[in-house]
What does this fold into?
Amino acid sequence: MAEIRDDALLLRRIPFSDTSLICHFLTAEHGRIALMAKGARRPKSAFRASLEPLYDLQIRWRPGRTGMGTLTDCHRGNSLLEPALSLQGLELLAIVSRLFQEGDPHGFEESKAAMALLGERGLQQGLLAAVWYLLTISGWLGDLSHCWQCGKKVEQTMRWQHANLICDACGNGLPVSAGLRKSIVGALSSGHIRLSVAGADSWRGMIRSVLAEHGIKPTDSFNPDYS
Ligand SMILES: [Zn+2]
It folds into this structure.
């Protein structure tokens, strides 16, 4: 069977037998796929140096007649993030890996855009902005000026309840001030808006509750005891 070639991001590496890896990729044209990298755990395997997350990859594989395809080549291109952002990049990939499941045709462009947002917004707000962006395109978030329940436009303080932003008439919950909402919108669209520490904590808490609501295990930065 003819080989297929595509641009890819590496999401997961799972040991298989003593010498091989099952690799999950998000690809530009083929969505999320799992491929067997035979011998990839051997010390001299060419895959060892190239099968890295957080890089642009070009991969080639032979589709399986019935089951999983076989990775035949992996070329490592540019790094997606500066080294200081690697840990947050891996957190982002862990969330991406839960949002785009196997067989999903989407995810590559979206993940690259989220990764770019992380890179541009940097250490303090980059991960918050990137995850918010992904949750928005997943359809789990509404916009920050309207009640997500009744649709009314709200200028004053709103409420955060069960991973929803609602108006006073629709219920109660943690206050989300107009200023905080404006700062979040600003941080998403520009690198010049800095949230206060308290504001960033609130934003982090909102994201944590959305992840929890959808059964996604929080990564380190979204754990409740994160400081
Ligand atoms: Zn409402």
In short: DSSP finds five helices and eight strands in the chain. Residues 4-79 form a domain with the OB fold (Dihydrolipoamide Acetyltransferase, E2P) fold (CATH 2.40.50.140). The beta strands are 4-16, 20-27, 31-37, 55-62, 69-79, 158-161, 164-166, 174-176. The helical segments are 47-50, 86-99, 108-137, 178-189, 197-213.
